[in-house]
Here is the input.
Amino acid sequence: MESTPTRPTPPPAFETPLSYRPPPVTPTKHKGLFHRTKTISPPPSPVIQVRKRGPRMSRTQEIGFALRELWKTHEDVYHDYVGDERRVRYLLATWLGPKYQRQLRIGRLHVRLIEAANLPAADLGGTSDPYVVATLTGWNKYGDEWSMYGWRDAQTSQVKPKTLSPRWYEDKYFAVPRHDAWLRVEVFDKDNQSTDDLLGSVEIQLKDLSHVGAVKRWFPLSVPGHSETAAAIHLYLHYDVSALGEALSMVWAEQPKSTNKTPFDANRFYANAIELQ
Here is the structure.
């Protein structure tokens, strides 16, 4: 009796593990001017940092930690937004008042400045020397921009000379204090002889980025004096935020109303009065 031939088992389907990363790209080489060898390395790919949670505290440990927090002076800023300690701090903040609330941070914003395109020319040669100023900021209910408690944070990129399509590939990190924070990205032209010119800007509300993961896209820039423009900036944004801290910060105290009033200028007053006549 002849035996029936067995069919070979097909190979298993390839599954991408959670920790899979593409293999590193070998740098390409080409010959430059005077046959000098130049090495061009590809930009590093953005990597999302996974939050690490510590061991969970027992109820007795939580009560003891809360009592120790009550006796502190609270002059340090608490950047931790992951773990049981931050959870106790967020719950205590409602009872300990504004001074304690101002020291807490509810999340971290990772901004990667990738590149920009179609920037306006600010120099006589038809080019610009662009650089970026990324600012974490916000406004209170009176319309005053953040200027106290270290909430506002501005970071600057390198200057890329004589180009309208610069590439930076720089990473910036911001500690977020409240739920109503904004990210303002401004592109300036570096000028050694006068004030730097604003080439374009965009404002992004962080609540639109919370709990959505990483975002990588082009953002159109608003250019002063131009209603329609093709200027844009390419950003990678990852906003890692505590849901509890974000929710409780809605009832935390805001920055108080600014008392800085514009001084009375008599010359300007009379000049405007003459123009009205």
In short: Residues 105 and 177 are 4 Å apart (CA to CA). Residues 10-22, 25-40, 45-50 have pLDDT under 50 and may be disordered. The first helix runs from residue 59 to 70. The radius of gyration is 27 Å.
